[in-house]
Design a protein that fits this description.
The protein is an alpha+beta fold. The protein is 32% helix and 19% strand. The C terminus is likely disordered.
Length: 816
């Protein structure tokens, strides 16, 4: 299910700040998380927007093919680029301010599935806030690649739409000449793009430079499901009204069309697109009409940008993406135009009704016609499963010939699909399934044109891999991937692929015998050239490695090994599925983490490595994506032990040299040469911590050629004590590093108080509550002092005994 995130900014201004209220919900359901925060005062932010807006408008207005005309002189592109960079930096600092930490923490704790679509709604009536490019919030939108921001329209539940034979699209093309100039804009390109992508199976009506009366009558006669306008437009200075140049003699406002458009909404108007300039005033006028989705350009737009955006938007929208993701995809695909028009990708702005889900091209066709998509449509999505036993990612084309048991019977030869046409789904490299018609992955945006991994049209799980002959093994060392939907060992059903590497494939699966509990399946690829000679060696090494993983899994910070087995001469490991997010979500490029964050990260990972190394195992691939912050308790879990090797005489006596594995940037020299040490893991962890402190990827760090010392200290605000520890962890010569995780932990413990006292601002890692040692000692000292003062006060001010001194025994008087 997709998620809805609403940031409600009720009141405030840039001089005093804005209170912010967050609500997170599953689309169509009640909210399940909320938080409060505040955007601090930022008067310079509005000024920086103006610093970009004015020269940008001046640049665009002087083009011969602009859809608006603004008075002003030409401006240099470098000046606009500088202004856009300054605005982006200030906006991110504003959104990441300490007053917003509660909102950020709530977002990251509750949005755990990157594959889900996330619709972010900014709910505000402040026109200056509506102009800001919210999509530049890198910490959020660069983590959640299937998220997009929209501005809020008034909430209203859509009425049931009247069924039609075909959805109606009304495209209006206004005046083609500018005011006082002969700058013609090429609206024919817009028309051809609409015909190319939307005219099939729709009732498409274009109107070119119509008179208001004709346009009004057309809307009343045949209310459209999609209203499109291209031409010259503008907003009045106060931004409350939008003007569109309908023809050479008529410039109208949205108010002139409101009665007709209001009736069109009741009849099923779903989407309005104004591919014209300065459309915020237009959107504000349309707001009270309750059109579910509106797309406008927030500033003047060059002709070429308007056309390229429309092309990319329609490609994604027709390819079954939602309006939100289609806008994001279009923005990303026109990013190359930023060279000529800095900030131009900020222009597309979506207004949406939060009560209505973001519309997709497929849903648009279904809603407009009032009928479900037919089975003959090869790009139709299958309905969502009611339980986990149904496979939601299986192909949508269901053959009509099914046996009584529910399995699909083989069609006769005359009905079988021709070669290369028997597929309805295609996978990207991340394992996401897509329609065969899609050009880009609907989950991660990867181009699909060059990919050839497709899923067969069948509801029957593909057959399990057959045993390989010696000849086949000799021809290829690669293992065949497990088919999605396959059931291994009679109980582990493959759901989707999680990754692949030199040691095999990794899949997410469900354990049918354990109430469909999720687990991870690793299909191992062991190196042996001749199956008949070395199969027994491969089997022994596999069982040895499984035994090691079983021992490691006894620690709750390492995934537990649930089972291991052979099937059809393939080797499989079944491990615990860790529900959480890896550290690549926290440690991102360009963002410097606090020193306290790094200290606690260092301590937690060292404790895991201490346990691992004492069992004679080197991990050899320490990196952010292999450390997961577990959702249930925020503890770090070290995963991906597919590359571990037991340190034993038996291993060293092998004739084969150790395989050099790992991730570039984190791999030390000795490991790259195939001779890993325990200190190799310590090196990788030190590099990870330096990356967190500097925000620089390890491959970008420079090294002194004479000393082989990594240069990073100038790029981070770090105490001398922690810098000394990290420098020793990443020494080029492994003999000069710490030789054990225990040794690093002891040194870190000795220096912890000095290191933490060095910091003035100590933000906690996302999802964790950090306790700082130096603050604990201060609290303890204050508590002891309070007890001492209370005791003294009691002694001084306590009431005297009511028994006279002379009546007490002598011994009691002495005691008193």
């Amino acid at each position: 299910m997709s998620k809805l995130v609403v940031l409600n900014i009720v009141d405030g201004d840039f001089e005093n700040g804005f209170p912010v209220f967050l609500e997170i919900a599953t689309e169509g359901q009640y909210g399940f998380a909320e938080a409060n925060g505040k955007l601090p005062p930022a008067p310079e932010l509005l000024k920086q927007y103006k610093n970009w807006q004015l020269p940008y408008n001046s640049l665009v207005s002087n083009l011969r093919s602009s859809r608006i005309h603004v008075a002003g002189s030409t401006t240099s592109i470098p000046q606009i680029k500088t202004a856009s960079r300054n605005l982006k930096c200030s906006l991110n600092d504003w959104l990441n301010s300490p007053q917003m930490q509660s909102i950020s923490r709530t977002l990251y704790q509750n949005l755990n599935d990157k594959s889900e679509e996330i619709r972010v709604i900014i709910k505000t009536q402040n026109s200056d806030l509506q102009r800001l490019p919210w999509h530049l919030w890198d910490d959020f939108f660069q983590h959640y690649l299937r998220s997009e921001v929209a501005l809020s329209l008034p909430v209203r539940r859509q009425k049931k739409i009247i069924s039609r034979e075909k959805p109606i699209i009304l495209a209006v093309f206004g005046k083609r000449e500018g005011v006082g100039n002969i700058t013609e804009i090429k609206l024919n390109t817009d028309l051809e793009l609409l015909k190319q992508h939307l005219s099939t199976d729709t009732d498409f009506t274009p109107l070119i430079e119509p008179e208001l009366e004709d346009l009004y009558e057309e809307i009343e006669r045949r209310p459209p499901n999609l209203f499109f306008f291209a031409g010259h437009s503008s907003s009045e200075e106060n931004g409350t009204r939008g003007l569109i140049e309908l023809n050479p003699d008529e410039t109208i406002t949205i108010g002139d069309l409101k009665p007709a458009l209001r009736e069109a909404v009741e009849e099923g108007l779903q989407l309005a697109i104004f591919n014209s300039c300065d459309g915020l005033g237009i959107a504000r006028e349309l707001a009270d009409l309750h059109i579910p989705q509106i797309i406008v350009m927030r500033e003047p737009v060059p002709d070429v940008v308007a056309q390229k955006f429309l092309q990319r938007f329609l490609e994604a929208f027709v390819g079954e993406r939602s309006v939100n993701l289609a806008v994001r995809r279009a923005r990303e695909r026109i990013h190359h135009l930023e060279v000529k028009y800095p900030g131009v990708t900020w222009l597309p702005t979506v207004f949406q009704n939060p009560a209505e889900p973001s519309l997709t091209g497929n849903e648009f066709r279904r809603i407009a016609t009032g009928v479900e998509p037919t089975q003959a449509n090869p790009t139709t999505e299958a309905s969502q499963p009611e339980n986990q036993s149904q496979i939601s990612w299986m192909p949508s084309v269901i053959p009509s010939s099914a046996t009584p048991s529910g399995t699909i019977a083989n069609p006769p030869p005359s009905q079988q699909p021709p070669p290369n046409q028997g597929f309805s789904r295609i996978c990207c490299s991340q394992g996401h399934e897509n329609s065969i018609a899609n050009r880009f992955c609907i989950r991660c945006g990867e181009a699909l044109e060059a990919l050839s991994t497709v899923l067969p049209i069948s509801n029957v799980p593909p057959p399990l891999p057959q045993p390989l002959s010696t000849e086949e093994v000799n021809q290829s060392h690669a293992i065949a991937p497990v088919g999605l939907g396959s059931i291994l060992k009679g109980r582990y059903r493959i759901i989707r692929q999680l990754g692949r590497g030199g040691f095999g494939q990794t899949y997410l699966a469900e354990d049918i015998d354990r109430l469909s509990t999720l687990c991870v399946v690793k299909q191992l690829q062991l190196s042996f050239r001749e199956l008949d000679h070395h199969y027994h060696i491969a089997r022994r090494l596999f069982h040895t490695e499984a035994e090691v993983l079983e021992i490691l899994g006894r620690d709750d910070r390492i995934p537990q090994l649930l089972a291991y087995f052979e099937e059809n001469q393939e080797f499989y490991l079944i491990q615990e599925f860790i529900d959480g997010e890896d550290l690549s979500r926290e440690i991102t490029l360009g963002k410097q983490m606090s020193e306290s964050y790094v200290i606690f990260l260092l301590r937690d990972v060292l404790e895991i490595l201490e346990f691992v190394h004492k069992r004679g195992v080197i991990h050899r691939d320490i990196k952010p994506s292999n450390l997961i912050r577990r959702k249930q308790d925020s503890k770090l879990v070290l995963i991906d032990f597919g590359a571990v090797k037991q340190i034993s005489n038996e291993t060293f006596n092998s004739q084969e040299q150790s395989v050099a594995i790992g991730t570039p940037g984190y791999v030390p020299a000795e490991q790259a040469n195939g001779e890993p040490q325990f200190s190799s893991d310590i090196y990788a962890l030190g590099i990870l911590c330096i990356q967190a402190l500097t925000g620089v990827h390890p491959k970008k760090l420079s090294r002194d050629p004479s000393t082989n010392k990594i240069s990073w200290r100038s790029q981070a605000n770090v105490s001398p004590q922690l810098a000394r520890i990290l420098y020793k962890m990443v020494r080029y010569d492994f003999r000069q590093r710490y030789q054990s995780a225990t040794e690093v932990l002891q040194d870190l413990q000795r220096s912890a108080t000095q290191i933490l006292s060095f910091e003035t601002i100590l933000p906690s890692p996302r999802g964790t509550k950090t306790i700082y040692p130096h603050r604990i000692w201060k609290l303890i000292a204050a508590f002891i002092a309070l007890i001492v003062l209370a005791g003294l006060a009691f002694i001084i001010f306590a009431p005297k005994s009511s028994i006279p001194n002379q009546q007490l025994p002598t011994s009691e008087q002495e005691k008193k």
